[in-house]
Amino acid sequence: MADATTDATTDASVAPTSRPRLDVQGWSCCAAAAAGFVVCLVGWLRGGATVSLPWAPTLGVRLDFAFDGLAALYALLATGVGAVVFGYGARYLSQHLADHGRPRSERWRFWPWMALFAVAMVGLATATDLVLIFVFFDLTAVCSYFLIGFDRERREARTAALTALLVTIVPAVALLAGAVLLSATYGTFSVPELVERAEPGTTTTVAGLLIVVAALAKSAQVPLHFWLPRAMEAPTPVSAYLHSAAMVAAGVLVLGRVHPLLARSEVVLTVLLVVGLTSIAVGGVLALGRDELKQVLAYSTISQYGYVVTLYGMVGAAASGAAAFYVVVHAVAKCALFLSAGAVTTATGEDRLSHLGGLGRRLPVLAGATGVAAATLAALPLTGGFFSDELFFGAAKEQGPVLVVAAVLAAALTFAYIGRYWMRLFLGPTGTTPAPLSRVLVVPVVLLALVALVVGVLPAPITQLAEDAGAVSHAAPVALSPAYHLDLRATNVMALAAWTLGGLLLAVTGLRDRASRALAVAGDRLGPRRAYTASVLGLRRWSGRVHDWETRDLRSSIAAVLVPAGALAAAAFASTPIAQAYSVGPISGTDWLVLPLLALTGVATVVAARTRERLSIVLALSAVGFALAAVYALQAAPDVALVAVLVETMLTLVFLAALARLPGTEPRRESAPRAGRRWRDPVIGAIAGLGAFAVIWGYLSEPREAPSVSADQIRLTPAAHGKDVVTVIVADFRGLDTLGEITVLLIAAVGVATLLRRGRLWLPRPGRPGARRSSCGWSPGSCWDRASWSPSP
Amino acid sequence: MTLAIAAVAAVLFGAGSYLLLQRSLIRVVAGIALISQCAIVTIIGSSLSEGRAAIDPEQGGPLSDPLPQALALTALVIGMGTLALLLALVHRVVVAHGTAERDELRDVDRPAVVDPEGAGRREGDETE
Amino acid sequence: MTALSLALLVPWAAGLALVVLDGRRRAVGWVAVATLVATLAVLAVLAAAVLRRGAVEYVTGGWPAGVGIVLRADALGVTFALLSVFVVLVAAAAEAVVGVRERTFPGLLVLLAAGLNGLFLTGDVFNFYVFFEMSMIAAYVLTAYGAQRAQLRAAVIFASVNLLGSFIFLLAVAGTYRVTGTLAMSDVAVRIAEVPASAAVAVAVGFFVAFSVKLGLFPFHYWLPTVYANTRPAVAAVLSGAVANIGAYGLLRFGAGIFTDQLRFSATVLIALGGASIIYGGVLAVARRRPAEMLAYSAIGQVGYVLVAVGVGGPAGLAAAVLYSVVNALNKALLFLTTAVRGPLVAGAFVVGALSVAGVPPAVGFVGKLAVFRTAVDARSPTLVALLVLGSALSLLYLFLIYQREFWAEDDEEVSADADDARGEHTRSVSLRAIAVALALVLLVGGAWPEPLAALSAAAADSVATEADGATR
Amino acid sequence: MRVVARLLLGPSVVVAVALIVKGYTKVGDGFAAGMVVGLAVALNAVALGARGAEEALPVLRHAPRVAAAGAALALVSGFFPLALDEPVFSHRPGPDEKVVSVGTAELMTAVSFDVGIFLLVVGVVTVLVHQLADPDQEHST
User: Fold this and answer.
1) Are A385 and A457 in contact (CB under 8 A)?
2) Which position among A283, A574, A582, C280 has the lowest Cβ density within 10 Å, counted as fewest Cβ atoms?
3) Which residue of D has its CA nearest to B90?
4) Do C10 and C59 touch, CB atoms closer than 8 A?
């Protein structure tokens, strides 16, 4: 793939005339995002607003939106970073499509999803109803699915998309479950109301854990982190957006939104702390050893959101505010890093650190801007990163020594991997010579770097935003005071320690790389990704096996109905009292004539079941029918007896007529049955018969003492001007049944005609040649092909 | 009497079920026919009162329960319709497939042997 | 009363007329569509009346209830009637736009709708059976539509298994009359309470088996994959979106409305069977390569949710069962239709259907999922919640595996294209695509504004509860 | 056999009419009557073959129309009260009204419903028998 890109790039640079045309969709998305940013900014400065509209009152869900601090923060990120990314993407996508020889119309598979992504993020940021949150939460996942799978002709992209979909959406169901649990207990889906009502306890803990699972999967935290590095198959703008302001941020956004609830459970907080710290460690160590640019950044993201999760795991105003601050700074820096990585790959056709190097000389602007972004992650002074780490350290300090050490180690790790990344890329010997870069691919990086610098000098606006957002997460006012202090206060000492440690890590290359590789290998062997793959593949294998077994052994579908039915009947029989529930019933008068007829029926039935000759089957069937007709006559049911005789005669005639003309009438010797099969059918038949016996005898033994409705019918028959009650019932009382019954008969005739004569109820007049193929309707094309009607060869 | 009716119905149902399991489509049709007889004899058996045929009720005296008889009439007719249809269907199938053995009916589009392992390998692409 | 009668008469009369005409003429196909639209309109009027003033009820011939047949339109029946007629309408339109190929097809579809209307709107147990047979016999013929070998084989299996189910149902009807002495549902519901347990449970088992076969519930489902996968797409849509509703409706009407005690008695069994269906259908769908076959197994899994909801019961459970049935029918109708056509918009429609099945917003499916989750939480059962999550995961996996193979991976396309050609070729008909997209939009609108659906299903559950309450009083 | 079949047709119609007329007082109704006629037709078809029977009795050709007419008559008889805003299957004359009789036959809508059933059954049975007795026409030609 890398080679193909190289070729395409060189072609493009040789022939600059083939420069792609303006991407209208992309630029309009960019403009819309920018406009959205302005609107959000104005909205925030005006102090926000809330909207609450009925949505589905029956389900108890409302369209609750609040444009509070948290919403403002994430909405500004989604639109602001969105505008930058979209602008970058407008150029990048054209190049990407041209490189891969894909039509420009493919843009329609990209920009709508990007735009929807931004909208969903803003929606998620402002939603305060848990179901509404779930809706937007999944919407972002759906968008990311299509964007990650944008290069759908590549198998890796398809796999990555499916993984991302499964790993983020399935846990999202847990969010729904948690929401339902909370609403079942406290009667509302609204987060603010829940914050008022929810009390610490098992329900809150369980619901909190469920929500946390969804959020952590989305934020790519260990052990559900593996989808994110894979998702690097997406085009660069998607990755940049995904990592900085959209998909991954959605997870911590939800954490921030429901944090007052989570804070009511120690268990949940501990889980957050543990998962956050583990993610920092795992992501950081793995980022140290990665070779592919985007992979380094992906693991970096896992690690960085680990910081935020850890902060949410600590309780306190400082932690909540720091988390919000951290998200902003990280979004700016990470977005810049991704865009720069995309620019590098576009320019060189290379995506591996080992093949790159010394780019600083050729691409100084890019190197500088990327350097600022890397410094921001490394928390160097004069960048926003310094303050975010200062706040992080400050929050950790309040939690005790363990977290202080952990925080320092985490910062050192970050310093090391991002330092390695930048140095490998821009310093050292030149790896691949870059082609000239479009300015549109560089300017966004510079822009973001400038933002990071501005925050580093003037933190006040972002501080204000973070305080507002933190106030929502903490459910109380939050005050942050990031500033430079030239003294040896604890946070400064921690920062210095982190830089020193990080510098050491940068220096000891051998040990560092070995450790990272060892963890990567261990992860591949035992890690969650492997478990995921194994379970999916195992599932497919099992699915195939069970299906195979089903088609081979159970497709004789009728057995599969009879046996469970018999089992259910047996269960019913066993689970109800049977004492005196069954009666033999009295025998009187004509019954002595009925009994032999019933016996005859039984014999004929057995004959019908045993014989293989078609003719004898028909004869046995009619014997059954006539014997039963006689029974009906003796049971004082002359109408039924008459019709039964007529129907039986007719059926016998029809059977004979049809069988006589059935092709292949030679009764075939059934091939030797498999062992065990010989007895299977009779046993199943016996089970079915016994089940029927239990059920039928069961209810025949329970005649109701109260008069049946037929007493009324007998009484009313004269009023209906009739004497034969049965006929009156058929034609009058239950005439609707009769109408239905004859309709069935008519449909049957039509059906027979459909099957045997293409729906023609009667043959065309024999004298008219060609009459048969005449009436094919007005459009000859709609006629069924004659060939398909003859037996297929 | 109750027991006798139930027993005959059970025999009809059991034999019908047995026939439904057979490979020959003709016997499958016969099985449905027997099971429909089972249903009708059960309906008649579920009469609540015994007496003379329910004609001219003003004459007095106990009458047999007319309602199940009406139901049985309807069920008989429906049974006849479905049987005729099933017969035609079987006829059509026999013509199209050239066999009256159920197990020999194969979809034209389904390979006779399913190889889940092979399929698994080919499909592994999207998951690994 | 007029609307109730018209709901029966319109499709019945039109169906009888259409069935003797040559349905391959465009005009006949469109008259069928128009009839179904008219039926839908009548049902809408009826539904409005039912929702405003409660159940509409009268007895044929003006006789006392029980002597004549009680016709009764309550929220549950109207909901299912609307749903089923809508699905049949979609299928009829789908065939009408590409050209009906068999004379009797439009007429049979309309008669099927008439039968379904009848059985959803009757208050009489035996009358239910008659309408049930009326729709089923039409369905048997429709299954053979296309008359290729695959369809004929499907029709034989469909007919033989479902006839067995029908006769089991008839046996249960006979038992109902025997033990209660009446056929009117409301009277049966009252009198069944006094019947000794053994007989009542025996009858209830009969009904349960009959409806389970119709629904294709594990372990009664073995007929279903062959049938759904081999009939033509429009017919598969009707079978899974309209005919299968009989099973769901029957479970609700007979289980929750009439055999209330027996249902409570066997709730565990129902939930276990529902859970088994969810898992079994989901697991088997994962490795299917043909969309139609995957959908068939998916259908088995999806009805499991309905059964679980019925098993848990209570107002929330029944409402969830209704809601889920409606959503599921629409999903399946859409997805089966998309197997008939190709094109980018169809891919979009498939995605909407897939998301809906998996319960992912913005498609309406998530509303059903939400309702089912609520019942699971009401039942205080973590196992059930885990089961539902697992079911969602499975459905997501199999749907998107198929989606990627069908619509993304060009190199594999011939595989399934060949297979689907066997059921009738893939068309690229623009109108058919438009129908698929329109149906997808319905699902999206349902997801964006779920209140009508939620209110309707709540009312339906309420009507069942009223019936059951009337019985205990 | 052929002679018997032919001979049976006349009496069968008579029996059928009798069954229908007596229907409301004695055993039998439209359905049974239809079946009797249908049986005679079926016997003809089995004896002469479907084509032969049709040539012998050209009137059979109208069987589908008869069935349709029967269905229509039955439907109308059942649903006409709708126009009068009464429940369907409210037969006229109503329960306590006087019935006009011609001989033993009573003139009422219930009887017309029965006649509809009779016509439908005759038509359907004829169609069914002819289809099943001679199904291969389409495939062989």
Assistant:
1) no
2) A574
3) D132
4) no
Cis peptide before A381 (omega within 30 of 0): no
A359 with A494, same domain: the answer is yes
pLDDT digits (tens, 9 = 90+) for A292-343: 888 999 999 999 999 999 999 988 888 999 999 999 999 999 999 999 999 9
Chain C residues near residue B90 by CB distance under 8 angstroms = 156
Measured in Å, how far apart are chain B's first and last C-alpha atoms? 67
What is the spatial distance between Cα C323 and Cα C328, in angstroms, rounded to a whole number? 8
Give the tens place of pLDDT for each residue, C245-260.
Answer: 999 999 999 988 888 8
Q: Is A713 an 8 Å CB contact of chain D?
A: no
Q: Which chains touch B (3 or more CB pairs under 8 A)?
A: A, C, D
Tell me which residue of C347, C423, C359, C420 sits closest to C101, measured CA to CA.
C423
Torsion of CA C206, C210, C211, C214, to 10 degrees: 170
- CB contact (8 A) between residue B91 and residue D25: no
C–D interface: beta-carbon pairs under 8 A = 43
User: In terms of C-beta distances under 8 Å and separation of at least 24 residues, what long-range contacts does B105-110 make, across chains too?
Assistant: B105/C149, B105/C153, B105/C156, B106/C149, B106/C153, B107/C149, B107/C150, B107/C153, B107/C226, B107/C230, B107/C422, B108/A792, B108/C148, B108/C149, B108/C150, B108/C422, B109/C150, B109/C418, B109/C419, B109/C421, B109/C422, B109/C423, B110/C419
Tell which A residues from 624 to 663 touch D, by Cβ distance under 8 Å: 638-639, 642-643, 646-647, 649-650, 653-654, 656-658, 661
Q: Of A4, A221, A8, A14, which is closest to residue A95 (Cα–Cα)?
A: A8
Q: Look at residues A264, A293, A326 and tell me which one is the last residue of a structural domain.
A: A264
Contact partners for chain D, using 3 or more CB pairs closer than 8 A, are: A, B, C
* B96·C149 Cβ contact <8 A: yes
Peptide bond into C64 cis (omega under 30): no
- The answer to whether residue A755 is domain-embedded is no
Alpha-carbon gap, residue A292 to A296, rounded angstroms = 6
Give residue limits of the domains in chain C: 2-472
Three-state DSSP class for A292?
strand
Residue A329 structural domain: 267-507
Contact state of B77 with A741 under an 8 Å Cβ cutoff:
yes
The answer on A193 and A285 residing in a single domain is no
Chain A residue with Cα closest to B12 = A605
Give the Å distances, CA to CA, from C191 to A452, A569, A706, C132, C185: 78, 22, 10, 24, 10
The total of other beta-carbon atoms located within 10 Å of residue A780's CB is 7
Q: Are residues A241 and A324 in the same domain?
A: no
Please judge whether D75 and C13 are an interchain contact, meaning their C-beta atoms are less than 8 angstroms apart: yes
- Who among B71, B106, B120 is closest to C126 (CB)? B71
- Taking only the tens place, the pLDDT of each residue in A69-89 is 899 999 999 999 999 999 999
Closest residue in chain C to residue A176, using alpha carbons only: C370
Q: What share of chain C is helix, strand, coil (3-state, %, to 5)?
A: 80, 5, 15
- Lowest mean per-residue pLDDT among A244-248, A415-419, B111-115, D46-50: B111-115
Name D106's bridge partners.
D101
Please report where in the chains the tokens 């493009």 appear, as a residue. Answer: A12
ipTM: 0.91
Average per-residue pLDDT in chain A? 83
At which of A218, A246, A264 does a domain end?
A264
Considering its fold, how many domains does chain A have in total? 2
Fold type of domain B2-54+63-123: Helix Hairpins (1.10.287)
- CB pair distance less than 8 Å for D32 and A719: no
CA C355, CA C350: separation in Å to the nearest integer? 8
Determine which of D22, D31, D39 to mutate to test the interface with A (most A C-beta atoms within 10 Å): D31
The residue behind tokens 């990627």 is C404
Distance CA A234, CA A13 (A): 24
